[in-house]
Specification:
5 domains; Four Helix Bundle (Hemerythrin (Met), subunit A); 21 strands; about 750 residues; five-stranded mixed sheet; about 50% helix; flat
């Protein structure tokens, strides 16, 4: 791992901490505030500062230090968290995000960013006050002088920390320099003593320049906290042995000493002496006693370890050692627990692609095994099919992430937008644990943002208007996610004015989108707002009114093989329902043929399959009467201008009555239509491959797939086909009625 890779890890983790800070601030803004929340937001700021210091990102360190100081004062109840401070903290959090996005050189060259930096520090001054100035002299900033961190008298000796540093032998190979950690420690205080241990250094024949053989024992005099010192080693602590003992020994320090140091007794004694918990004489007496007991019994017993000997001699409180042993047991058990690891998204996508190829090859093997009629082989292939399905499901689950993280980001958007509009809005989140394909979550951000902003600007009324209407002055905006019929539903609803159908119709006629005599259902009327350039706003605002955004929303959702339904009632509110497939990678489909071309219909959209010849076809229209309901349908051969192969044409000419037309009834949302095909081949698992640029304009096709026999199958875009079927039916019906009217004349 190179230094650039490690630095990239810092940026990723910094973003996570910034998101955590925002979430805590949002809770505080809603009136929640307790010590745990203050500790969480303090840790986030503190971790960012400590990590930035390792890489010399001093512009982040210097600003974040003041933020950290204010939060620390709040933790100590020296200041009160009020709305004014929360507003400033939001701005500080945003500024920290801007600082993380630029290098030190870029920051030094941007006067605007420096001005914001200075303005926010000035805004924090009333809460930081003198405490900030006192703390600033001791923090990890480039501009702080080391002399500020040096002790002024011997009384500071009780601020001596001992750090036992055993870095991974791969430290240098991973792009980390041990001297950078020591340099950063010196900015936290004064290094009183450092001892470099070279016991592991090999001879010249076995020496590797990329392997770290050195270890360090460091005595640091500092007022820094344990967490601040620990954060110095954030990027190496997982594969290193690092023990930090504070001036006043705590349970965790004894635990780390007992559990981690290689030469337990001697190291424990040395560090206790350095920390002032034991005198040299006390240490010698404890070691002598230990040696005598070991000699008498042949080995050290469980009841006479060094910690207990020190307790017996009244050198260390019994509760400290007892608690340390208890904590040690807990920590050992934690080591067996699972850990989360970071995986590059490109590697994950590559894994999914490989498993997709595995699924395709499994289908091929299944096809070949059936030709052999070998029972044992067929059974083995069936078992292989089962394992392939399990691998597929396990791999796809890696791509699934909860939608909650995306929903949480809208809390800040709603808060800031409500303040800008002078409205009081409450955001309600439901179904945050609903999982969705990662690629979908990434592409849902912009559509959801447009819908939420429009709901707040157009949908939700002002405080005065809500009072006049007898509503609660606090408007409600709800984001919900749930499963429905093999799909994921993302619903955005509000309790505002609703959509003005009269205004929408007038605007559509004005723009020439519809004919004045056109008869449209409510859903068809609402769908007009997705027309490019369409807007019913009477005035342009910073949020909406220019007729852009909603057309992009529909286009982005359709690109995800999804659709949007709208429900609205005047004076009650509106709801936008985005319907999406569970995943875009591997789907369960239904294999059909039309004019010798293979198609796959997503199985979740299919209601039933029927024989078209057995149902009444309405004359002059592609529409059938299915149990009293008029269902429009499309013929695949007509839509895609398919021509049958030469062999198929000959077969049809010889036996024209043998032609069997099948109709697949599909549903998406509230719309139902039929797809007429020549043959039904059954269920199939298929890997979705994107179409090339040449086919982007082709309506009704959402992707392609490779079948087990090597042929290409096209995956149908059911929402587009249903929309096309309904549009064709309306046009055919109008044409049919017009022809009848002409004949009557």
């Amino acid at each position: 791992m190179s230094l650039d890779d490690v630095l990239q890890t810092f940026y990723v983790e910094a973003q996570e901490h910034l998101e955590s800070m925002e979430n805590v601030l949002l809770k505080m803004d809603e009136g929640e505030c307790d010590n745990e929340m203050l500790n969480d937001i303090f840790r986030s700021a503190h971790t960012i500062k400590g990590s930035a210091g390792i890489f010399g990102l001093d512009h982040i360190v210097s600003f974040t230090h003041i933020v950290e100081n204010v939060l620390d004062r709040a933790r100590d109840n020296k200041i009160k968290i009020d709305k004014d401070l929360i507003d400033v903290m939001f701005k500080c959090r945003d500024h920290m995000q801007s600082l993380v996005a630029v290098t030190l050189d870029e920051f030094n060259g941007q006067t605007d960013l420096q001005k914001i930096d200075g303005d926010l520090l000035a805004a924090l001054a009333p809460w930081a006050s003198e405490e900030s100035n006192q703390t600033l002299a001791k923090t990890s900033t480039v501009t702080a002088s080391k002399n500020d961190n040096k002790p002024t008298d011997e009384g500071d000796n009780n601020k001596l920390w001992h750090i036992s540093l055993r870095l991974s032998t791969d430290c240098l190979r991973n792009g980390m320099d041990p001297l950078s950690f020591i340099k950063f420690l010196s900015s936290l205080g004064e290094i009183k003593h450092i001892e470099t241990i070279i016991d592991a250094f090999p001879d010249s024949a076995h020496f590797d320049a990329e392997t770290l053989y050195l270890a360090y024992e460091i005595a640091l005099q500092s007022d820094a906290s344990l967490e601040e010192i620990e954060n110095t080693f954030m990027f190496v602590q997982d594969d290193s042995n690092i023990t930090i003992l504070p001036p006043s020994a705590k349970i965790e320090d004894y635990l780390a000493l007992i559990d981690k140091l290689p030469e337990e007794n001697q190291r424990l004694g040395d560090i206790l002496v350095n920390c002032g918990s034991l005198t040299k004489h006390s240490l010698e007496q404890a070691l002598i006693s230990q040696s005598k007991e070991s000699t008498a019994s042949g080995e050290q017993t469980e009841t006479h370890k060094l910690g207990e000997l020190l307790t017996e001699q009244h050198k260390v409180p019994e509760e400290v050692v007892s608690a340390a042993l208890t904590k040690q047991t807990q920590n050992k058990s934690k080591k067996s627990e699972g850990k989360q690891i970071r995986i590059d998204s490109n590697r994950l996508d590559h894994l999914i692609n490989l498993i997709g190829e595995l699924v395709i090859n499994q289908q091929r093997i299944d096809l070949l095994s059936k030709y052999t009629k070998n029972t044992a082989l067929i059974e083995a292939v069936d078992d292989f099919d089962n394992f392939t399905n399990q691998i597929r499901d396990a791999a796809l689950s890696l791509r699934m992430i909860p939608i909650g993280a995306t929903f949480q980001r809208f809390k800040r958007l709603v808060r800031d937008t409500a303040q800008a509009l002078g409205k009081d809005v409450e955001l309600i989140i439901d179904g945050a644990d609903t999982e969705l394909d990662r690629l979908m979550v990434e592409k849902l951000g912009d559509p959801l943002t447009h819908i939420v902003r429009n709901a707040m600007d157009h949908g939700l009324e002002s405080i005065e208007a809500r009072k006049a209407a007898g509503k609660n002055i606090k408007g409600q905006l709800k984001l919900a996610a749930y499963h429905e019929g093999g799909h994921i539903i993302i619903a955005i609803s509000d309790d505002g004015n609703g959509i003005d159908k009269v205004r929408v119709r007038e605007k559509a006629i004005e723009k020439g989108i519809i004919h004045p005599d056109a008869e449209l259902s409510d859903n068809e009327l609402f769908q007009l707002i997705f027309h490019p350039g369409f807007s019913t706003a009477t005035e342009v605002t910073n949020l909406s009114g220019r007729g852009v955004g909603m057309d992009v929303v529909k286009r982005n959702v359709e690109a995800l093989q999804g659709s949007i339904d709208i429900r609205s009632q005047t004076g009650v509110g509106s709801e936008f329902k985005i319907r999406l497939p569970l995943t875009l990678a591997i789907i369960d489909g239904f294999h059909v043929e039309a004019s010798g071309t293979h198609f796959i219909i997503p199985q979740a959209t299919i209601i039933e399959c029927i024989n078209l010849a057995n149902h009444q076809d309405i004359k002059g229209r592609h529409c059938i009467n299915l149990r009293g309901e008029m269902i429009p349908y499309l013929k695949m051969s007509e839509i895609f201008k398919l021509t049958p192969s030469h062999e198929q044409t000959l077969a049809n000419n010889k036996m024209p009555h043998s032609i069997k037309r099948e109709l697949v009834i599909v549903q998406f949302g509230n719309d139902v239509a039929g797809i007429a095909v020549d043959r039904l081949n059954g269920e199939i698992q298929t890997v979705v491959k994107p179409l090339g640029p040449l086919f982007k304009a082709l309506k009704g096709i959402g992707g392609s797939s490779l079948l087990g026999n090597g042929e290409i199958a096209f995956i149908l875009d059911v929402p587009q086909l249903i929309e096309l079927a309904i549009a064709n039916e309306i046009a055919n019906k109008a044409s049919y009625l017009e022809s009848i009217h002409s004949q009557e004349k």
